[in-house]
Specification:
This protein has about 325 residues and is of the alpha/beta class. The protein is about 40% helix and about 15% strand. Helix 8 packs across helix 9.
Length: about 325
């Protein structure tokens, strides 16, 4: 069955992660994506492990369902080939910084006349209107500026990066839906437009949904940071033979968990009687659940939680994720 974007032609001048992941999402939905690489190729081609040179594992994870062409955009022949691709495209996407792109002659002002109906997407580290405009950025840089590293360092813990390219991949999702909206507008009206998706602004809005907290209001009702989500007590629970994630959020869930552990007497404890009370005493509650989790095996917990309809699962290693029967 053809994807919903079948027939849309995308010219993909992106490298590394955030841009290629965006265009892969479009390609997976049926778009005809042509990936334009410099003569030396996307740097993820050189990654390891690989079975064949130039086909690193991350490159393969980010570039399926695409065509590829190598063009030297600093040469007139390469630039002319690129202009022809853009003339026949519905969507153009890049993640270059503004100045180098303009020098090559492929900023929006330069290509708009080539194809007035083009959906043109910029993915940048920082929005063009801010004081950081034009600065180079990779995932770790955005993790730091968007508050993610501060969350890892919350309550005296050691500052560290989230151990995945979360800013790149999250921004790619923002870009994919922004491009989809612009493509819908183009198909409905024939009008093209320029789309801007900055990593810093995107990731900050993503991080602060729960963590703007009291500063959501004016005047402020308290500091930023969701204690429920950033508490150092938020950990997987150790069982007799491993770890389990248990997340009983509602009164019904808590009643089921207390029944599983044989502590239904706690239902009448004023500290745990409802959600507000549990949040106020979350430290005591988390420690108690941690102590009781160790009385059962992981399988016993997962089976009991599933039967009771309580959110909870075992903790997979990366290898176990790959082989998980689901």
């Amino acid at each position: 069955m053809p994807g919903p974007f079948q027939g849309l032609k995308v010219v993909d001048l992106t490298t590394v992660v955030v841009g290629p992941y965006t265009t892969q999402l479009l390609a997976d939905m049926g778009a005809d994506v042509t990936k334009v690489e410099a003569p030396e190729g996307d740097m993820t081609r050189m990654g390891t492990p690989h079975r064949n040179a130039g086909m690193g594992n991350m490159f393969l994870q980010l570039n399926r369902n695409k065509r590829a062409i190598s063009l030297d955009l600093k040469s007139e022949a390469g630039a002319e080939a690129m202009r022809k691709l853009i003339q026949g495209a519905d969507i153009f996407i890049h993640n270059m910084r503004p100045e180098p792109l303009a020098r090559l002659g492929f900023d929006y002002a330069s290509v708009r006349d080539l194809n007035p109906s083009l959906v043109y997407c910029n993915i940048w580290g920082f929005g063009r209107e801010g004081r950081y405009a034009g600065r180079a950025a990779f995932d770790d840089v955005i993790q730091g500026t968007s508050g993610l590293v501060a969350l890892e360092a919350h309550n005296g813990r050691e500052a560290r990066f989230v151990p995945m390219l979360i800013a790149d991949k999250t921004t790619a999702l923002f870009a994919a839906y922004a491009i989809s909206a612009a493509a819908y507008h183009k198909l409905a009206t024939g009008e093209g437009q320029e789309v801007e998706v900055p990593m810093f602004e995107s990731m900050t809005s993503f991080t602060m949904i729960e963590h703007l907290a009291g500063n959501t209001f004016d005047p402020s009702l308290g500091p930023s940071g969701s204690e429920r989500h950033a508490t150092p007590l938020r950990w997987p629970f150790q069982t007799k033979d491993g770890h389990v994630c248990i997340l009983p959020s509602s009164d019904k869930h808590w009643a089921a968990v207390l029944k599983i552990i044989g502590r239904e007497d706690l239902l009448s404890d004023p500290r745990f009687k409802d959600r507000a009370a549990r949040l106020a005493h979350r430290g005591e509650l988390t420690q108690m659940l941690s102590d009781l989790a160790a009385t059962k095996t992981t399988k016993e917990w997962v089976d009991a939680l599933a039967e009771a309809g309580v959110p909870g699962m075992h903790i997979n290693s990366l290898e176990e994720v790959v082989s998980d029967p689901h």
